[in-house]
Amino acid sequence: VLLDGVDISKLNVGWFRSYIGLVGQEPVLFDTTIRENILYGNENITEEQMIKAAKEANAHDFISKLPE
C-alpha cells in the first residue's frame, strides 16, 4: 500500500498516526429532546441553523412528523 507514492511500511508509525483519526459511524442520542441532541456541543446556533442541520442529516421530515 502506498501513501503519496511511499510504501506505508517505511513510514514512521507515530508520525502517520498523528495525521489520521477515526470517526465512528454509530449514532449517539442522549436521553433528552431531539432539539437538545442537535444543539449538543453548540447551544448558540439559531433556529434556522438547527433546521438546516436536521435537513442535512436527512432527519427534518422525520422530526417534523413527530408529536410535540
Automatic annotation (TrEMBL):
- Alphabetical list of InterPro entries matching this protein: P-loop_NTPase (IPR027417), Type_1_exporter (IPR039421)
The coiled-coil regions, if any, are none
Q: Which domain of life is it from?
A: Eukaryota
Q: Name one GO molecular function term.
A: ATPase-coupled transmembrane transporter activity
A cellular component annotation (GO) from this entry: plasma membrane
Q: Which SUPFAM superfamilies match?
A: P-loop containing nucleoside triphosphate hydrolases (SSF52540)
Q: What protein name applies here? A: ABC transporter domain-containing protein
